[in-house]
Structures
1.
Amino acid sequence: MRLRFRMPSLKVTVGLVLLIVFTFVAFFGDALAPFDPSKRSKDILQAPSGKHWFGTTHLGQDIFSQILVGTRSVMFVGFSAGILATLIAVVIGVASGYLSGLPGESLSTISNVFIVIPALPLIIIVTNVVPNSGDTAIAVVIGCTGWAWGARLLRAQTLSLRQRDFVQASRANGESTWRIVVFEILPNLTAIIASSFIGTVMFAVLTEIALAYVGVSGISEWNWGEVLFWAQGQQALAIGAWWWFVPAGLCIALLGTALSLVNFGIDEIVNPRLRSSGRAVVKAADGRKVRMQIGFTPVLSQDSNVNKGSAAR
Amino acid sequence: MSQPVLEIKGLSVEYGLGDKAVRAVSEVDLTLRRGEVLGLAGESGSGKSTLVYGATRLLAPPGVVAGGSVIYHPEAGEPFDVLRLTHAELRAFRWDQLSIVFQGAMNSLNPVATIADQLTDVIKEHRPKGTKTERMVRAAELLSLVGIARDRLSSYPHQLSGGMRQRVMIAMALALEPRVVIMDEPTTALDVVMQRQIMRQLVKLKQRLGFSVIFITHDLSLLAEFSDRIAIMYGGRIVEEAPSSAIYADSLHPYSHGLLHSFPALHGPRRGLAGIPGSPPDLRNMPAGCAFAPRCPKAFDPCETDLPPLTRPADAAGTGDRTVACWLHPAA
């Protein structure tokens, strides 16, 4: 597959810009934050102002700083859990799809078991058992529990791919299983791997925030769920302190949007058929606008050429 | 001369829009008469499939019809322009009046539906009043029409051989007794024995049911045997059109000559095989004159600058109804 550089579509550009901003904040959130996110002050429960952009908490902590500092934990857990889960999904999914007999069946059974395990309760239990569970531990736990759907998808696609002629041909050539999997099958799975990665990152982010929100993960490090946890605990909604939970919620939504928009871009690169080829709506001869469509080819003009043709004759 | 069924007039087909448009078929005139087999030949990329798909409006985006008209003459009633039909009219027109047998029968049949399901589906859509039994009877009839045992009705496509699948496709195209059947290289994937068998059957069916056929192929020897008239396409235009015997015996256009002499004849004296040098023209960058001039062994002065019109040649007036677009054979 040859990838040529092309200007990404507007959707993808927006997604990439959002993602870059979040990554930047994840790296430099500490330095950018105007206040120490945990430091109390006398400005208690203040609405957004020039000094406190997102207002303050019941202890006078600056919410803007909390969001900035909390981004790192969210992004770290999201992406490392996503990478881990995708790696496990690729290994187990492709192996269970390509290998026949007992190895394939048993790997498939394992992923089926992991699908039915309710992830969140399991994660709560594990994080309680693991002492001192920081971000890394949470990422590992989410990664080890969130791979099953991706593996399932990859298994299905691999099953279909291994019957294709080009795979059969390389098997007949005597190529090793490794070579067939890595060079013949994996390139055809790029789209699924990429989209399952994006999906897992989103799942990991939401899970981590949920964990922090229910108060399971330690309160040593800030993240967006932590902010929501405090907002909920202090009845922010009831006392009308909207600035306490709205920024964190918006950030979650924006990150999710960015990831899905980038996913469109991946689809377009990997699957050339999804690329829109310029204009899809044309003006037909009868003046109506028609969508270009197979089976109903638009007729642009009916007479001009006929006249020319008959004049030549 | 029998009456026309389908008249393609000045049809131009383009891929892409505006500046990026590539003209794959330009101002083609072609008439299909009642009960005849019209062969459409040319090398890959000469526009033969595009012409037919453009005329039936089956092109996938970014294909558009850039001009012309396609007049269909129904059995009863006024002739109408296929290019002016609304979507609903087009759906009703297709298969009922005009049907197509596509290139790959292997890929056109749904692998998870039985032959009976796929044969009755179209009848159900176009004749909603019929009963299920009637449809099954008709499907069995269609299969026996193309020489397949009727117990094959409950088979799935993978249980049939390539030739049988192709014949199922032909049966399907004939389901509603259309008056025009377009065949787009229907026998390309088959071996020569099967090709001949299917062609024989087709000609027999045509005589019995009285439809007209447009047959697209690059296999001129097949055309010479089974078609009444042959139109040769090159670079999106028809360069020669003549009764098949005339073209076979005495092709006027150097391109037709090249095509005919690129395969050996089974009978008759031995002759040297001559291919056509060069490669098909780039549609984005067509020569100003005759598209074939750069490859033509007989090219002379006007060929490079002036486009030869498709006219009745003066020097072959006695050989029947034929036209050619070549400066070697100017109009009468």
2.
Amino acid sequence: MEAGVKLEDLTRYPRLMVLTSLAWFLAGGTAGLLMVLAHATGLLRIPEYNTLLTFHGTVMTFGGLFQLMMGLSLLRAGFCYGKPVKGLLVKASYVLLNLGMLMIAASVLGLGVRTSYTLMFPLPAVGVFKGLWSMEGLTVFVWGVVLVLAVVVALYPAALARLVFGGKTQEALVLERFMGTLNPSGMAGMLPYVFILPPLGAAITVGAVAIGLALVGIVPLGSIGWALTPMNFNYPFWIFAHNLMEAMGIMALGTVYWLIPRYTASEEQRARTLFSEKLGLFAIVFYSTAAIMAFPHHLFTMPTSQPQGLSYTGQVASWLTGFGAAFSVFNVLATSYVFGLRLTPAVLAAMLGFGVYIADGFLAMQLGTIGWAFRLHGTYAATAHLMTILIAVTLIWIGALYHSYRLLFGRPENPKLAYAHIVLTAVAALGLLYTMAFMGSLGAPRRAYPLPVGSEGVAALLTFGALLAAGQGAFILQLLSPKRRAP
Amino acid sequence: MMGTGAGAVLIFVYLTAPFLVVFVALFLLSVRRGKRASAEGLRENERLIRAAEVVWLIAIGLTWTAINLVSIQWIPWIQAQTAVSTQQEPTQVVQVEAFMWGYRLDAYELRTGVVKFVARSLDAIHAFAVYSPRGELLATVMLMPGMTEEIVLELREPGEYTVRCLEYCGDGHSAMASKFRVV
């Protein structure tokens, strides 16, 4: 180690983020299990279910997955470029994200705000006027959202950009051979987030801040009428939320592109890259461009008020993202087959996560088809897509976590527990995907309790939910198990 | 059939099940190949794989394009327009108001044939989703406050149709429903 350079500078915040994300995952996962149990037994009252619904969605997406991605992507950028993961941007990202999440959790669990994590604007405001929750609760909720948005849209991409483009490399912190900023097996998969999210998330952040300022009386409510019309709020929200999911997906794809070549059996120099680096880069650029244009698929079921030309653009762009995914399928499988793979928890998680991601992609493209969207939008099929993509991306990042397990926790992972964790998670993800897709085909409304139709799928939901929980139990055992000696 | 929700899920299963089998098989094969000692020996089929790359991309392109074109006929108003032109029936128009947590229709008894629903929300975001007497979801539209949506459906089956909300709208979301009859 060079003088003054400590490995801890690289790992402290990523480890904190990973462990904190685990705490949020546990809290949100428990809420999710209770929700399914309630469908089976009727144990919750409707407001209690809707409270858990809002808590589960918010916590799993931002406190859990986003934070896991933030920690591991910063770690990876740090040890590839040889730069410490610390400083104001990193600290502020960690503190403000979790402060925001705590405020949201308090407003949901303590003050009864239950808007679902998609907000459904103007429901937050209408709920106050209907007496469903208080103005105070809404104020805490909105400021929690503002803090989370500040991290997602500005602080995290700035911290990542600083690691990629700024600062000086400290050779002692370079732990992996650098694969190139613009290479798909290097950092290319991280760049769409850095460059796309800040401009596309700016409008919703400004709107949320304006609403927050009005709620605490700093600006008059009348002066922010522009932010309170449903379309003015929801257009920026959909553009942001859609592209956040896509950018997280592309970053996960980039993680597969990075991990798989590192576990090929061939010792050749070339085996440390993808089968086709050009196709990999093309896939990332193609996918990113198509994803930005695919956002109008949120408008398919507003056929009169929204331009139909925009809908068709959304359909074609949604399918073009499928092309990007198809390029990736070929490239990842060709890399694995041509160079051979060494089986490790990291590679298993990345491959199974990628497989689930692609399987879900078929459903995403169906939801992105106008004719089908009129029969599936708002049903459990949409839930199946959203939840599966989040689990798949999480599984891919679990691969990255096992790749860096010894670096983060100072000991190697227990492979048996790791394989149990990964396989149970993947099987549960696929089980939930098919079950929810089936419930969607029956017309089961999402976010509805009790279910007016589609309750045939509840037993399967409970079974696969329990499997998912068992998988995470294996990971907790992994973390708590006594130190194993490095081989 | 393929344009319905059930058809969509059937196609989904037909496409993803073989994909997952092949994906896992190739993964396991890659792990098996990885146990071979000689690194050079692994690259024997590289030219074949380069050819497979081209075939794969062309096949994907053709499949994707075909589904996109075929799916146009599944869009509700295009189906309904076809029915109007072949049956020459006058279109019935029903005004719908959605609110927390119910629906108000200006007609609860309709004739079989083509019906245009003109729907709007009075408060939060709601959906206007129509289920056939057999429980099949025929179509859903999202209702944003301040905007009006029109959906044209061909209601062929006599019986009791159900209207439900598919967009989360608070504590009464699950129970937000109404019914109308088609005779």
